[in-house]
Design a protein that fits this description.
The structure is a homodimer of 165-residue chains. Helix content of chain A is 56%, strand content 6%. The first copy, chain A, is mainly alpha-helical. In chain A, β1 and β2 form a beta hairpin. Chain A starts with 31 loop residues before the first helix and ends with a helix. Chains A and B meet through α1, α2, α3, α5 and α6 of A and α1, α2, α3, α5 and α6 of B. Chain A binds a DNA duplex (23 and 23 nucleotides) through α4.
Chain lengths: 165, 165
DNA sequence: TATTGTTATACTCTATAACTATA
DNA sequence: TATAGTTATAGAGTATAACAATA
């Protein structure tokens, strides 16, 4: 039997933390896409944990916010704003309607569409959860300079505008 | 306490233009998580399009890079570095091995594990595709200042470090 | 013919758990 | 008893396609 030096040995810690692999990924760290992906996983995880306390997934809370901001929007418009397909919107709107956060309203002049409106409870819910998400994000960026944040927003928005060019 | 501008402050101004949904998401724009998610979709889409020309998905190319950088790593170590489960690594390693980009090598002293090594073809492939991904990213960030990029990296890495705290 | 909402289905990605062979 | 790799399965999440009602 040989003894085993095992320099790369890594104890399986249920957390799957990147700490022990700190420089195993130094090549990938050079890619902006890699850093965005890792940060995105953390942010979405925090937001998901915040939202699920009120029974939302990311898409359904985004939908509620959009409907609050744009009363009488249709499901097709909502699909476009969420960048998902119309078929996916049905389940989200079903859920929001079942919880009495929004209503589907018939439109005179075009009986194919629904005008989506938030209820009073929906608006109150939006305000409450909106603040919770904001607090969760503030914890993540605490300690960073204001100018770094705005620079990051600039970079992210620039990248988004470069889609499909 | 709040260091960021209130997104609700810029409701305002219809203006009656052709694109009705242009600022339909102005509330969500106030969330860093929303901007990261949208930018991430664009970046990952560009990277995916670049990689698939060489038959890679994001995870399989990341795996090839990691194996090139850390010869003789095991599948469990690779799983940890990729932040996925060991079961998912099997399919990725199967694919890379079938394409003769890496080899699974038996380890004397512990016959449970494989030592993963890139082949010469794997290293060449890594170099070629690495440059292609870098070019794709450079197109996305063209026009941005160097200091904005580094600030964005700082923000992203800070967020990642704040995971689960 | 085209569009809205809907339903059914498929596909991708990943996690969970059980199994084997080794330790 | 514990670990590495494997396999089978299931669950999100989303896309595709077909359909009825309406335009």
């Amino acid at each position: 039997m040989r003894s085993r030096p095992d320099p790369m040995a890594k104890i399986a810690d249920g957390g799957g933390n990147a700490d022990e692999n700190r420089d195993a990924d130094h090549s990938l760290r050079g890619f902006l896409g890699y850093n965005i992906k890792r940060a995105n996983l953390v942010v979405q995880g925090e937001i998901r944990a915040t939202l699920e306390k009120s029974g939302f997934r990311t898409a359904s809370f985004s939908a509620l916010v959009l409907i609050c901001d744009t009363p009488d929007m249709t499901q097709t418009q909502l699909a476009s704003a969420l960048s998902i397909e119309r078929s996916g919107v049905v389940l989200i709107v079903d859920d929001l309607e079942n919880r009495d956060l929004i209503t589907r309203n018939r439109v005179e002049g075009d009986r194919r569409t629904y005008a989506l409106r938030a209820t009073l409870a929906g608006i109150r819910m939006r305000d409450k959860v909106f603040a919770q998400v904001r607090d969760a994000e503030d914890r993540l960026i605490a300690g960073l300079g204001e100018d770094d944040i705005t620079a990051a927003q600039r970079v992210l928005n620039h990248i988004e505008k470069m889609a499909a060019k």
